[in-house]
Predict the structure of ABC transporter, ATP-binding protein.
Amino acid sequence: MTLRIEIDDLAKHFGAIKAVDGVSFSVSKGEVLGFLGPNGAGKSTTMKMITGFLTPTHGTVRVCGYDVLQDPISVKAHLGYLPEGAPAYADMTPDGFLKFIAEIRGLSGADRKRAVASAAERARITTVMHQPIETLSKGYKRRVGLAQAILHNPPVLILDEPTDGLDPNQKHEVRTLINEMAEDKAIIISTHILEEVHALCNRNVVIANGKVRFDGTPHELEAKSRYYNAVCVNVANIEQQAFETFLTSLDFVSDVEALDAQAGFRVYPKQGAQITAELSEKIRANGWDIDALHAEHGRLDEVFRSITMPNTESSN
Ligand SMILES: Nc1ncnc2c1ncn2[C@@H]1O[C@H](COP(=O)(O)OP(=O)(O)OP(=O)(O)O)[C@@H](O)[C@H]1O
């Protein structure tokens, strides 16, 4: 594992507001880290400190081994940043804008031409290169922002809400592009779109009120749901009360909940264990016919709420 981003005890206070309050985590090559949190959690402020746009109140950030305060130029050379809303110079064309950014990045001549062509190709904006940015759709504007971020082929990408406000097709295209780049980069993506946990990320950090509340894989996040591995089950021709009593008596079951309209029961396992096989075996051993039986995944919206609601204990 090659560590690319190391964040230690990072904080930013705006007067009495502790926007970021002692955040620590690291990101390795090949990781796409979904940085999740409700509005005002401190995501953008953290990203601005990683990229050197804001000075921390305390704490350290290292990008590819370079300290953001000691060596800001090396840090900027090793990362690409897509700020929230992907601002760009509206009256420029993508071609002019990318050439301008390439120049700032110190590229000239054939190198500049090659970098612009390659970023435009990867971001799929080759057909709009000579159209003013202000006349482009939101999706294309975002892709121009992405092309700007990947122009110098940096090993680290920091993307602030890259799919926010895009339609489903545009979201899909931007996610595909990020997935294509994931293998050889370390990427942080801030989002409050929970479907991106699975569509994009192989790791998640959840923050609320400036503090890290969870750090783990999407699977571990989902496993925090009370519905994780719960089994919905219905049996034909049986008195519901008797069936509920039977389910409650099983030693691997922690709770049983009646579903609407005689649809059977939701059975909660002890310690989130997988119980589908054991449960169906026990039911069949009683000579009953199973009408329906399926295990549930965790519900991310419920997990997100329980982790990020104010005054909730840390769930990490
Ligand atoms: N320049 C500033 N001055 C004062 N307070 C600020 C400043 N920038 C951010 N904040 C406050 O810091 C907190 C964290 O803001 P931040 O923008 O980092 O959150 P976020 O998680 O990115 O939210 P969102 O999802 O809405 O973009 C908020 O309470 C915000 O109002």
